[in-house]
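Supplementary Text 2. Reproducibility record for the structural model of the 365-residue chain.

All settings were left at their defaults, and a single model was retained for analysis rather than an ensemble. We include the record here because the model underlies the residue-level annotations in Supplementary Table 4.
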Amino acid sequence: MKLRGRILLGLLFTAACSSVFASEDTVTITTYYPAPYGVYRNLRLSPTTAPTTGVAEGVMFYNISDDYVWFYRGNEPTKGWQPLGVGGFWGENSTTHQINNTNSGGNVGINTNNALCKLHVVGATAADAELDTIRMEGQGEPALLMRSAANGANRNIYNPQIQSRRSRGTLASPAAVVVGDELWEVHSLGYTGSSFYPAANIRFHVDAAPTATSVPGSISFYTAPSGGTLVKRVVIKNDGSVGIGTETPAQRLHVEGIVRANAFHYPSDISLKKNIRPIENPLDKVERLEGVRYEWKQDGRSGIGLIAQDVERVFPELVSTDEGSSLKSMEYANLVAVLIEAVKEQQRQIRRLESDISGLKTRRP
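Retained model, structure tokens:
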């Protein structure tokens, strides 16, 4: 009875061991304290060279020659040995680019095996140009937070930046941009219940011919009116001139439309002026001006004012001519000085006449 039990136990142990050592599907490392989970802080692969015998799908080794962890994906032509990453970090599949690696400096590359910064993302190609490269989503307020700290001489150099670099050609062989090329675009879209539609937009363009060391740029601001598509509202040109309602500002600030303000102040301090002299014959000059009624050709609005060419013949200082369009404009507000002196001259004439009339009255018998 005892002999039979020992034989039976021996057969069961042999069968169990054969089952365990013959299986290659799963290797499980576990512990029973603290039950039922175990925590392993380190798993070390001893540096070695590529194995030449016993290689099967799933075999891993730490290659001492290149500091990569490699695993064997099979003997098919498109598989073979595949690196997981430098120093044991996850690496990039050289064919599909779906797993990405880090280099020895800790840089992470997505869709590239040559990460040049802490996070290097190679995004859409010409074939999938509409795909998102980086997307942030959240039920609350998805945010991109950038922080920096610097002191001394570098305090105004090392600041958080958002940088856009645009070229023609390819990434490997860039070519110069040309006038009109869009350099960057910031979109703002809102959901209407059926889809997302643009609400506002900021675009950056090449505004003039680039040189070897500079790219003249412009910024355009767009908003969408109710029931309409994006409309360009404000333009800042490469020379700093700003256009509101116009894409071609002729002055530092050029507004097409009505401007409403509580006040406009002009620099007028005496310390800013020289060669100060009185206005000669102001009344005579005012009489040479002609106030007129007119309608604007652009929108048919009625107006009252002066013709710049007429004013230029009398007061050339009040009229300026745009170099590009040759259109003339004038400083209406500065006519106040002329009108003040004209009124004063007229009052002197009135007083002389009153004095003459009074003298005639006293001499009457």
